[in-house]
Queue: 2 jobs
Job 1
Amino acid sequence: MKTIKLKNTLKGEIEILNPLEKGKVLIYSCGPTVYDFAHIGNFRSFLMSDLLFRVLDYAGYSVTKVQNITDVGHLTQDDLVDSQGEDKILKKAKLEKKDPYEIARFFEEAFIEDEKVLRIIPPTFRPRATEFVKEQIEMTKILIEKGFAYSINGSVYFRTTKFKDYGKLSKNSLKDLLSGARVEVNDEKESPLDFALWKKAEEAHLMQWNFETCEKIPLEEIHKQHKEAKDPTLFGFPGWHIECSAMSLKLLGESFDIHTGGEDNIFPHHECEIAQNECTHGGKIKCWLHAKHLLVDGKKMSKSKGNFYTIRDLLEKGYSGETIRYALLSAHYRTALNFTFESLEMAKNSIARVVEVYRILKNHKEESTAKKSFDVEVSTEMYQKFLFEQDLGVSQALSVVFDLINTAMKARENNKLTNKEAMKVVKFLEDDFNCIFDVLPKETIISANLKKEIESKIIERKEAREAKDWAKADRVRDDLLAKGIELIDEAGKTNWKIKS
Ligand SMILES: [Zn+2]
């Protein structure tokens, strides 16, 4: 286990990661709100979380990562102290005249597909907010009991003035917030800074639960239940902030090591999470990591400016997932990343250069009599130091990679590259570079043994089919599929590819 240093938004400085349990790191990353395809700005933050996961794993830690799916409660005006507006998923459902749950599942699936394209490692747990409503209600009830929240007209608000540390993450004081923050007019709240933990649902609201029983009200029963209920203010839906608090508590425990998100989550979302957690059970989140906003052509991305891109848009323009991954990952997560098509081209060229060198060095056979002219171990050490100790220093780590491959190619040109050194660089690219950046074509790093196995399985399957033993033929195909190899029958021949 190596020492890891990260910049903690809460402290405002770089500090050594000191996990609650030695060798284990618990991470919670705010996941997507599934009402539309996620855009490249969203994915910058999800890629930061992937980078963090991979760096910790590479450094020898055992990592548990929770990344939720927000499928209820995220309102359109989410930058207000207390979010207002329409539920993003319901708005889309209305627009498309579909069941809101259908919308949520559709975009959840699309998100997971995009993640795969970008080679993001799936989280250990991917909880849906709608499946943890009971936990959210329980937490809300504890906050009411302890006096940190109050219920009025069927809605429940957090009493911000009672939590003296409110504002510690975003460096806001309650006083500053009162004078400067964007607040809405709402007479039922004690203070404009109070935020909703639970909102009363009108009959027309399509996603609602019973606050007493925690049960979801099926769409077709909403009208009937509202009509028959003694107290219709019992029906409602959870706020966006409470879901992350409830899911992290259930899956990681009261305290955990790292929480990540985009910088727009710092306030109010993460500030509210801290308030809810600390007032319910006193648990602490040790380190907060936030990815900076992404600009496109120097401007904030927006649909109206025509500089808004989803992963699908870029794939359609012919860029690969690896290229997009590299372009979004290669700048430090706390720097403003200006995304341009030029930067995508540069990413494409950088990957092509690494792949080219990788292939040349892998086939390097000429044994040079020269002594070794460079030191792969020194480069590896520097590469690790940047990633581990410079707050996930990707740009410096990448410059080490390019220095190393350029030096190796120079030595080769001058006939000074030994086979041993060439193999060490190949191994570095496979084991060190690729385990973090993951952009090498998958088929190039498939082991020779697996290749042999695939070829013999193809023959075995062909024989089984000739003998009309379909069950056996299918079994062979499924065995390979389990190893990530897909067989393709074309024009009487069987080829294979890595399952995407
Ligand atoms: Zn969250």
Job 2
Amino acid sequence: MIYLDNAATSWPKPESVLRAVMGVQQKPFGNPGRGGHRASLCAGRVVYACREEAARFLGGVPERVIFTLNCTDALNMALRGFLHKGDHVLITHDAHNAVMRPLCGMEKRGEITLSVLRAGADGLIAPEAIDEAVTPATALCVLTHASNVTGTIQDAKGLTEASHRYGVPVLLDAAQTAGTINLADIGADLLAMPGHKGLLGPMGTGILYVGEQMDLRPLREGGTGSSSESVYQPQLLPDRYESGTLALPGLAGLLQGIRFVRQHCAEIHAYEVQLIDELRSGLKNIPGVKVYGDDAAPHGGVLSFNIAGYDSAETADRLDRAGFCLRGGLHCAPSMHHFLGTEGTVRASVGPFSTGREIDLLLAEVEKIAKRA
Ligand SMILES: Cc1ncc(COP(=O)(O)O)c(C=O)c1O
């Protein structure tokens, strides 16, 4: 099997991640923060180590690292916890449904208004697009760092600076960049990311980093193991946003995943770009294959294509039968397909353990399918 669906979730994971996930289940680890006995304290130390590691990686402080179920959960926490009735929100054409659905639902209920930032034909958004779209009611700018369809990476730092000039905070969806790009430099106020993609942790993990000036209403309230004498949600972070038992095996694995990528972040990015560039130039030489996304735009380890005569789902299915795991369809980003003028694409997404040989084998298989069309 050749796995090229790392944009959905990364595989394989480093050995250290697998060992850590097993480790906290083989030994007596209690519920973190829910007892003074040694088993609970051991678990609490694992959770704190993960929080510290994430904070170091994100250039922040541990208590503002909020553990979530995935990136969708982090984005919902940020959007629903921050916005108020009457707010205007800036969004991007390449937003995933994890951003679109909560916001479009709020818009439909008459709670907020939305504007999509203007993008060039290359899919890139210039900071001036913010000048054009911002209004006195703009409360938040939600940026997608990299498209999960084409891999195109936006100038998140430039866009964040432009938004800040109007006093508008930025929520960055870093689902496709966390683990390969330094997020600390961008200056976003809220950072949402999955733990199970580029950070190489297990599924069921994610992070919302809540910047210093940001105050969110908690979506979930309940037991935190702290201030138990009060029937009201504690104000202290991270407890304010982390009610209920945390995913200890997931966080033990995520700690090791972040440790792995923190040491190799820039190398991983360069390696993934190299593999995608090889794939892109190979696909372009196959008659009947169309590759999406601008060649010159900065990009990560994601690429979309179609083979003439086949629907994307059919191509993905044929590839699956030949042993390749790639995704076909809309990739939960309908607005991006509207922008590209497609009804679906086949997506290849690489990870740090993908190889040039896998890319060569994929190219050979695509060529075979294209010839049969
Ligand atoms: C850009 C983007 N945002 C959000 C998400 C949602 O991530 P998760 O599956 O962790 O909820 C994805 C998932 O692919 C994505 O690509």
